[in-house]
Amino acid sequence: MGVKKQVIIEMASQFAKDMLGNDASGHDWWHVHRVTELSKRIAEDEGADVFICTLAALLHDIADEKLNESEELGLKKVKDWLQLQSVEGDTIIHVMEIISTMSFKGGSRPPMTTLEGKVVQDADRLDAIGAIGIARTFAYSGAKGSIMHDPNVKPRTNINQTNYREKKATPINHFYEKLFKLKDLMNTKTARTIAEERHQFMEEYLQRFHLEWNGDK
Q: What is the pLDDT of residues 72-86, one digit of tens each?
């Protein structure tokens, strides 16, 4: 990676820290850091452009609709920043395409169109499962004021982009509504291998949770 690209990566890291450093919903700087490191690892294994993957990973949550007044304003914030850093036009187009289409949103989004997009999407989804994914799920729900579990509130089966973030969702239902689906949605061989173990851990955790909830353990 050339000097100019390295400088852009360092500035993007600082931008992400400044924007997300105090987030308490599981979308903080350390989430971005983990997704970035996973993106680089997967990109190297899969032969993707490491610079594009790293830059998109660093910026992906700055535009997230959960952290902005709207998705459009979030995306504009990222694009304006990229232009301010004199990032090449083709790179801006590629990065913006990745971060504007990688979100789960009920699983209704079309597949990523580039290898780099697949890599960053996989890295983001990997950070949503396993031990870290469990912690982030409860952190997000707590930040949004959701109760931990209500056996009378069943997991939703007709989730779409419109109703995905309805308030009645609980973190336990989130396992069934999203987290358990992610293993089979991984794009790359590298991510699928990592996802297998993380998925198994979540299944074991939830089995234990229900046993303790019912007083059986």
A: 888 999 999 999 999
